[in-house]
């Protein structure tokens, strides 16, 4: 399966990918995008099985990317990995169609809890 990791920080993308491995999801293909606009384009070209996206990014935010994907008919599983962990943001993410929101700082256990229902271990 393929996972699209979206964050404007290369370091944070690498931390997310490392945490995926630590939580037992090491065998999946991972592709990366630097912002929401690139993520929308890559969903069309790469056809990932899951998108893990930051919320705040230049060009297009994660929530705007999710809205654009859903408006285009894409039902790709989508979750946020973000510093925006308030109940209001969680409700906004769920209303837009996100499956989960993992707040930073996160642990491999939090990743496993969120991903176990969405993604098989590789």
Describe this structure as you would to a colleague.
The protein is of the alpha/beta class and 122 residues long. It has one domain: 3-Layer(aba) Sandwich (Rossmann fold). Helices cover 43% and strands 19% of the residues. The protein contains 5 helices and 5 strands; from the N terminus they run βαβαβαβαβα. The chain has helices spanning 10-22, 36-46, 62-71, 87-96, 108-115; strands at residues 2-6, 29-33, 50-53, 78-82, 100-103. A 5-stranded parallel β-sheet has the order 2-1-3-4-5, with helices on both faces. Helix 4 (87-96) links the parallel strand 4 (78-82) and strand 5. Helix 2 crosses helix 3. It is globular and about 30 Å long. 36% of the residues are buried. The model has no long low-confidence stretch (mean pLDDT 95). One of its GO terms (biological process) is phosphorelay signal transduction system. Pfam families: Response_reg. This is Response regulator. Residues 2-119 form the Response regulatory domain. The modification 4-aspartylphosphate is found at residue 54.
Secondary structure layout:
Layout: E1 2-6, H1 10-22, E2 29-33, H2 36-46, E3 50-53, H3 62-71, E4 78-82, H4 87-96, E5 100-103, H5 108-115
Parallel strand pairs: 1-2, 1-3, 3-4, 4-5
């Amino acid at each position: 399966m393929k996972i699209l990791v979206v964050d404007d920080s290369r370091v944070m993308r690498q931390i997310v990918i490392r945490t995926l491995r630590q939580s037992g999801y090491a065998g999946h293909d991972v592709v990366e995008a630097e912002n929401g606009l690139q993520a929308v384009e890559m969903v069309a070209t790469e056809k990932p099985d899951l998108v893990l996206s930051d919320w705040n990014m230049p060009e297009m935010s994660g929530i705007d990317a999710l809205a654009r994907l859903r408006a285009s008919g894409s039902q790709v599983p989508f979750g946020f990995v973000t510093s925006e962990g308030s109940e209001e943001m969680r409700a906004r993410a769920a209303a837009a169609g996100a499956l989960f929101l993992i707040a930073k700082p996160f642990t491999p256990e939090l990743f496993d809890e969120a991903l176990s229902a969405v993604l098989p271990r590789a």
